[in-house]
């Protein structure tokens, strides 16, 4: 009598579907996309302004020459057409950008959400582990809540960078009325130099930010549009 063939084990049950959770308040979404538009226009108009005098004084910068001295940026990446037009765009977009920033910071303070975004010294170890994961040195994604420690570091840094952009911009815009601020940055050309480099740091942050969204958690893009999240991290709330 032949033995019956072994039966295959039953298939594993499918993972339970993750439920939708509210992730981003409408103020966060409004200020996020509003800042993207306003900042894009300010960068494009700023490049047009730079073309009017594409260097930073005789020294090229306060500490080392800028590699962008004499650079002519493509016309499609500039806004305004000429110096006066670019200045009009730059100053017009400055106000909504500042208002979006103040509205966002007011929401963070009023809602208490700043506590989950502010990077603290105790987050340093978690940020290192998250960086290991991004670099492929760690297989498992570290546990996280709504924001991981590396995101907290990036968001805290970018807020400080935004403050620096405003201060250096004011130092350039009103060098006589705010002479003390202009002097604090090393003079008009030095303040212009730092203001210009802030632009490239913003661009680098945006590129890395978008890449990580699509590589790590593309569901977060939908959450920034609709406010609702369903993805890898159900602990988001």
Number of domains: 1
What is the number of helices?
Answer: 8
The first-to-last residue Cα distance is 61 Å
Beta-strand residue fraction: under 5%
What is the strand arrangement across the widest sheet? 1-2
- Order of SSEs, N→C? EHHHHHHHHE
Structure write-up:
The chain has 237 residues and is mostly helical. It has a single domain, classed as Fumarate Reductase Cytochrome B subunit (Up-down Bundle), CATH 1.20.950.20. It has eight helices and two strands. It has helices spanning 26-51, 83-111, 114-117, 124-134, 149-173, 179-184, 188-216, 219-226; strands at residues 21-22, 228-229. The chain has a two-stranded antiparallel sheet. Helix 1 (26-51) runs antiparallel to helix 2 (83-111), helix 4 packs across helix 5 (149-173) and helix 5 packs antiparallel against helix 7. It is globular, with a radius of gyration of 24 Å. The model has no long low-confidence stretch (mean pLDDT 84).
């Amino acid at each position: 009598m032949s033995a019956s063939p072994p039966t295959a084990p039953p298939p594993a049950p499918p993972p339970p579907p993750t439920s939708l959770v509210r992730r981003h308040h409408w103020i966060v979404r409004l200020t996020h996309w509003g800042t993207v538009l306003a900042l894009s226009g300010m960068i494009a108009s700023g490049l047009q302004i730079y073309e009017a005098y594409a260097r930073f004084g005789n020294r090229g910068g306060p500490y080392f020459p800028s590699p962008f001295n004499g650079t002519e940026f493509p016309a499609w990446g500039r806004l305004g057409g000429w110096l006066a037009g670019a200045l009009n765009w730059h100053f017009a977009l400055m106000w909504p950008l500042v208002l979006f920033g103040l509205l966002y910071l007011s929401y963070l303070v009023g809602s208490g959400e700043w506590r989950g975004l502010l990077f603290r010294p105790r987050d340093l170890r978690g940020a290192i582990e998250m960086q290991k994961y991004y670099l492929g040195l760690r297989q498992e994604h570290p546990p996280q809540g709504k924001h991981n420690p590396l995101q907290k570091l990036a968001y805290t840094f970018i807020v400080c960078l935004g403050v620096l952009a405003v201060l250096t911009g004011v130092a350039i815009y009103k060098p006589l009325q705010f002479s003390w601020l202009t002097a604090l940055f090393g003079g008009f050309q030095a303040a212009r130099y730092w203001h210009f480099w802030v632009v490239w740091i913003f661009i680098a942050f945006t590129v890395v930010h978008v890449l990580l969204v699509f590589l790590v958690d593309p569901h977060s893009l939908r959450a920034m549009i609709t406010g609702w999240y369903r993805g890898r991290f159900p602990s988001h709330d």
